Amino acid sequence: MKIALDAMGGDRAPAEPVKGAVLAAKELKIEVALVGPQQVLQAELKKHPLVEGISIVPAGDTIAMEADDVARVVRQRPDAAINVAMGMVKDGRAQAVVSAGHTGAVMASAFFVLGRIPGIERPAIGILVPYAAGKVFFLDAGANPDCKPSYLVQFGQMGSAYMEKVIGIPQPRVGLLNIGEESNKGNELAQEAHARLAESGLNFIGNVEGVHVHKGVADVLVTDGFTGNVALKVGEGIADYILQQVRGVVKSSPLFIAASVLLKPALRRALKDLRYEEYGGANLMGIDGVVVIAHGRSDALAIKNGLWVANSAAQSGLIETMRQSFSRRSAAPETTPAAGR
Amino acid sequence: MKIALDAMGGDRAPAEPVKGAVLAAKELKIEVALVGPQQVLQAELKKHPLVEGISIVPAGDTIAMEADDVARVVRQRPDAAINVAMGMVKDGRAQAVVSAGHTGAVMASAFFVLGRIPGIERPAIGILVPYAAGKVFFLDAGANPDCKPSYLVQFGQMGSAYMEKVIGIPQPRVGLLNIGEESNKGNELAQEAHARLAESGLNFIGNVEGVHVHKGVADVLVTDGFTGNVALKVGEGIADYILQQVRGVVKSSPLFIAASVLLKPALRRALKDLRYEEYGGANLMGIDGVVVIAHGRSDALAIKNGLWVANSAAQSGLIETMRQSFSRRSAAPETTPAAGR
């Protein structure tokens, strides 16, 4: 089991990715291939004590965040670190890719080099959110701003596969993010997706409202990439806002300051779940290989977590399961669309 | 200036609405007509010291929350408190309606009795969120799960009118809730709405991402009713979640408990902005009259706030301004749709 790390991806590359790889190799015994310019990575690696399980795979730099037409640039630069890393998974030299590079570039490279699992219409970004009441696999977090109902059913299938194989939850409960509990609530997409999810054979528990997202009512939450992205980012913003408000109020009195010094670790622990950079990254679901996209601001800890997430998924056999399950589904005769929906 | 209060609407009616009316009349000198069954309201009113400015307008009960086909029920019961209250605005005996009843019933009644302002395609639910960095008028919060780009432009016009007339902000900055800053980001609806907002003559500042909603970058934020409802409810849920997490962690140590006793008022103050019931209600925008929908769980304080919100809007001349502005717009020749968008 080897993970290919795009060592030049992210705002803090190569220092933090290399450091994260060293931590993962040392603490988690994960084998990491650092992909990028050889001399740069060798120099960076020398700053750390020698550790077993790290290799360097020469490649060019990664695709810059500023690239205007990312998909075109990705195609024109087969030597780019991200493309070389994907190629390693393609030909079996690695079992997963981790990158903190530009999300669009990583998606384009994954699509271009690895392709989709047959039967899946659209890859989606899945984020595992560790709420206190239970982990929720949330997708799509932003890959597909416009969705068809069939995509949402496939998101449910992919999310279920993830929760079952990687997290070990049998028969994961699948919920549809919606604006009411009744089946006839929501926009046209949500209504049609509700009907199809009910007939999908998944363990579909119905609609989940925004106020209940964190309450552990579902293991998988599906929505279109527009709503999903807004929901996750509003949640992140509100968490920041609350911290900032608390800080402001605390500063207004010496008594508050004293109390807050005591409470700070408690607050930090409470808010940790809502900091997406702690999770180790988003899973690009539906690609024919394990691809984890870490936050652009990732530090060594985030990269280490990302390598752990990728390694767990690769070890779980998630991709093989999805290949089999979707090839069965696509081989099966098309179900007749229900009339009048 | 008189406000018609649906005294039987909400989970805690008639006690809390009547108490809220008494508070509003006493503290804010707002004239309130309690609309509902005369004997019930008389009995309830007797529990309070006599206060000037409160009258009772006889009507039946309000529409029950359980009604299946709300719109039909509203039409079949012209004597229902909510319909009688709307009728008072229609014929000038009151200048605004406040109800903590079923949102669907209030909307149906408003539509049925008062109708739309000519030129407005769809009424929307507007919520004024008082973030520390500045108030944001957020719409649509859930009335229209499916929207056309033209609706979003009208939401921007209605929100601008509200912020200018009621809150007193000249040339309100209008933002579009979206998943990226560039104009080509988002789903089809957001992309087309962006193009139209840019040409609308409004003070359009472009896209606003979920993480920036609370940062005071815009005075008005427009989105479709599906995304808007999910965003507001996720925000509400996350705020609840954080409180609950903090409580849990605090309980784990006596030191934390001591600190939290000191910090509790600070936390409460910091989180107050995110409790939508504190705002006094949502504004039903686009209806030809001021209609404020208070939370179903409203207590007397929330009702008092709702009466204040309604009174401010009625005094501001918001409806007259919107009538004039939309009649000008509808009289103007249709702008040619830009090609290739």
Descriptive report:
2 copies of one chain form a homodimer. With 341 residues, chain A is α/β, with parallel strands linked by helices. Chain A folds into 2 domains: 1-120 and 286-341, Isopropylmalate Dehydrogenase (3-Layer(aba) Sandwich), CATH 3.40.718.10; 128-277, Isopropylmalate Dehydrogenase (3-Layer(aba) Sandwich), CATH 3.40.718.10. Helices cover 46% and strands 16% of the residues of chain A. Chain A has 11 helices and 11 strands. Chain A has helices at 15-28, 38-45, 70-76, 81-90, 103-114, 149-167, 188-198, 225-251, 254-272, 300-316, 318-331, and strands spanning 2-6, 31-36, 54-58, 96-99, 124-131, 134-139, 173-177, 203-208, 220-222, 282-285, 290-293. Residues 336-341 of chain A have low confidence and may be disordered. At the A-B interface, helix 8 and helix 9 of A face helix 8 and helix 9 of B.
List the main descriptive attributes of the protein structure presented here.
globular, alpha/beta, 11 helices, Isopropylmalate Dehydrogenase, homodimer
Quick structural overview:
The structure is a homodimer of 341-residue chains. Chain A has 341 residues and is α/β, with parallel strands linked by helices.
SSE arrangement:
Two copies of one chain form a homodimer.
Chain A: E1 2-6, H1 15-28, E2 31-36, H2 38-45, E3 54-58, H3 70-76, H4 81-90, E4 96-99, H5 103-114, E5 124-131, E6 134-139, H6 149-167, E7 173-177, H7 188-198, E8 203-208, E9 220-222, H8 225-251, H9 254-272, E10 282-285, E11 290-293, H10 300-316, H11 318-331
Parallel strand pairs in A: 1-2, 1-4, 2-3, 4-11, 6-9, 7-8, 7-9
Antiparallel strand pairs in A: 5-6, 5-10, 10-11
